[in-house]
Amino acid sequence: MAFELVIIGGGRMGSALCEGLLAASWCDREQLAIVEESLEQRAVLTRRFPDVEVLAALELDHVGSRTGAVLCVKPDHAEAAARETAIAGVTRLLSVVAGLSTARIEAAFPGPVAVVRSMPNTPVLVRKGVSAIAGGSHVIKDDLDWAEGILGAVGTVVRVTERNLDAVTGLSGSMPAYLYLVVESLIEAGVHQGLSREVSRQLVVGTFEGSAALLVATGESPQELRAQVTSPGGTTAAGIRMLEARAVRAAFLEAVAAAAERSRQLGR
Ligand SMILES: NC(=O)c1ccc[n+]([C@@H]2O[C@H](COP(=O)([O-])OP(=O)(O)OC[C@H]3O[C@@H](n4cnc5c(N)ncnc54)[C@H](OP(=O)(O)O)[C@@H]3O)[C@@H](O)[C@H]2O)c1
């Protein structure tokens, strides 16, 4: 039978998407399939998604005129997987593969194919990701709407041009790691001030979650929210002055620039 959507690669990203799509009732469960090479992982997927078809390979009869595919394999397997998808007859594909251009995916297909490339980030695993999408040379608005619907099941989606995807990679793609480094450092700072590691962790992780919620709920700018906790000559002002003296702001500018440049290099 032909499916509405086939997820190629049932690892962390493919599984997270499957879970989000099922929770959002994006399509009927029987219309969704996961293609997974690893026998072991297929058993895991079958247990986790009992109503979803888990396939070892994509065959011609799995693909109809409306079948779309999501490419969720590691970058070094991606072009081979795209070729297999092309042979099966897929003509609309969303890729989450980091660093693989739409042109290289299009080249795996014998004819025109609508390729939407995306850059999600790890919070998609808890359906709170942010993904940017960009269309290839045969993409129309309907294809972008389709891709946004899929990634929208695991978070929010922004549309950019493909040349901006390296900047997105350096910013939101890597940002969870930047923030975890900040969290890690603050927990350590609490310990240095005599708090137990567990208490410090509770204070820092709780404040991290609460501050993000406040930013989203109030819609106020980060500058305004920061000013609200920075009394003139007070404790926070003393802490902020130290961070500015250590050029933390410049360090973030340079970190994002370095990550975006690395993304450009890897994509060449
Ligand atoms: N994880 C994230 O948060 C994140 C964020 C942004 C982008 N991405 C992108 O998402 C992609 C997938 O990442 P991941 O973390 O989900 O990887 P992963 O956990 O390794 O999952 C990939 C799965 O695909 C299978 N596979 C490989 N080739 C296949 C083929 N031709 N047909 C069917 N299945 C195949 C692999 O099986 P084997 O193990 O047997 O090879 C593996 O089980 C990557 O390209 C990455 O750049 C991930």
Give a quick summary of the entry.
This protein is an alpha/beta fold and 268 residues long. The protein is 51% helix and 14% strand. It folds into two domains: 5-165, Rossmann fold (3-Layer(aba) Sandwich); 173-267, Orthogonal Bundle (ProC C-terminal domain-like fold), CATH 1.10.3730.
What does this entry look like structurally?
- There is one protein chain.
- By secondary structure, this protein is of the alpha/beta class.
- The protein folds into two domains: 5-165, 3-Layer(aba) Sandwich (Rossmann fold); 173-267, ProC C-terminal domain-like fold.
- Helix content is 51%, strand content 14%.
- The protein contains eleven helices and eight strands.
- It has helices at 12-23, 39-48, 75-87, 102-106, 141-151, 165-173, 175-192, 197-218, 222-228, 235-245, 248-267, and strands at 5-8, 32-35, 53-55, 68-71, 92-95, 114-119, 129-135, 155-159.
- The protein has an eight-stranded mixed beta sheet, sandwiched between helices.
- Helix 6 (165-173) crosses helix 11.
- The protein is elongated and about 70 Å long.
- The mean pLDDT is 96.
- Bound molecules: NADP nicotinamide-adenine-dinucleotide phosphate.
- The site of NADP nicotinamide-adenine-dinucleotide phosphate has 26 residues, from helix 1 and helix 3.
